[in-house]
Structures are given as structure tokens and as C-alpha cells.
Design brief:
The chain is an alpha+beta fold. The chain has one domain. The chain contains three helices and two strands. The protein has a two-stranded parallel sheet. The protein is globular and about 45 Å long.
């Protein structure tokens, strides 16, 4: 089967590198794999800014599953 997350960010890294002429980016994400993927394609990431979301009964299970998968989210959920 396919890996759990089979998305490929190489096109995004190439586009950013071209558009920004090699300047670093601030990445807005809770997913450390996105930074790793951009850097793997020589796109420098100067900072990762976590996205803070409101917690509700409707999204708590989803947010907990993201944290279990390695996303950088508060541990008190």
C-alpha cells in the first residue's frame, strides 16, 4: 500500500526556490516533515511558525491524531 502520507512537496520547493531566488522562507506549519522535505530540495527554512487552532468537541480527535503522527501540537490535548 501507499505510505501514510504520500504527498510530495518537491514541486513546491522548486517553485519557492525559483520565485524567491534562493531566499529562505518562514514555514507556517505544525508538520516537521514539510520543513525536512523543503530542505531536502535545497529550500532554506529560516523559521517554522506553528499554527494555533481553536479546540472544539468537533476537531479534538483529529488534532490528537495529528499530534500522534508527529505534528508539533500542545501535549495537553
Amino acid at each position: 500500500g501507499l505510505p501514510e502520507d504520500s504527498r510530495d512537496f518537491s514541486d513546491a520547493a522548486i517553485a519557492l526556490k525559483y520565485l524567491l531566488k534562493g531566499k529562505p522562507v518562514r514555514l507556517l506549519s505544525n508538520n516537521p516533515a514539510k520543513r525536512e522535505h523543503l530542505e531536502k530540495h535545497q529550500q532554506e527554512v529560516s523559521q517554522v511558525v506553528p499554527l494555533v487552532v481553536g479546540i472544539s468537541e468537533h476537531n479534538l480527535r483529529y488534532i490528537r491524531s495529528k499530534r500522534r503522527k508527529g505534528h508539533l501540537l500542545p501535549s495537553d490535548l
